[in-house]
Amino acid sequence: MWVNLFPIILMFVVFYFLLIRPQTKRQRELENMQKNLKSGMKVLTASGIVGTVLTVRERTLTLRSGDAKLEITRGAVTEVLEKGEAAAEEEPAPPKK
Q1: Tell me: the pLDDT tens digits for 46-66?
Q2: Separation CA 70–CA 13 (nearest Å)
Q3: Torsion-angle region of 66 (φ positive above 0: left; ψ -120 to 50: alpha; else: beta)
Q4: Rounded CA separation 97/86 (Å)
Q5: What is the pTM for the complete model shown?
Q6: 77 vs 24, 59, 64, CA distance in Å?
Q7: Where is average pLDDT lowest: 18-22, 68-72, 91-95?
Q8: In the chain, N or C terminus with fewer CB closer than 10 Å?
Q9: Can you tell me the mean pLDDT for 86-95?
Q10: d(C-alpha 43, C-alpha 77), whole Å
Q11: Is the dihedral of CA 75, 79, 81, 82 positive or negative?
Q12: What sign does the CA torsion over 49, 63, 35, 57 have?
């Protein structure tokens, strides 16, 4: 009986380590990045807009992209392209070797 269940159990273990676990790790990293947005950062949104963060609120943030000023939700930000001056000053410098 256990011999017949072994391939199914093995398949679930493989799916977990190859599909589920990496996806949850990426999701956690994305949520952490969205929580730590600061003004001055250059970001990319899910719709392809590249802009600089002007203000950060609880659920939304204001971007400047070219001559346009946009208010978007934090969930729309998919990537930080550059850390701005204000954001870079808050982080400690990496230790020198």
Answers
A1: 999 999 999 999 999 999 999
A2: 44
A3: left
A4: 25
A5: 0.68
A6: 18, 12, 13
A7: 91-95
A8: C
A9: 58
A10: 7
A11: positive
A12: negative
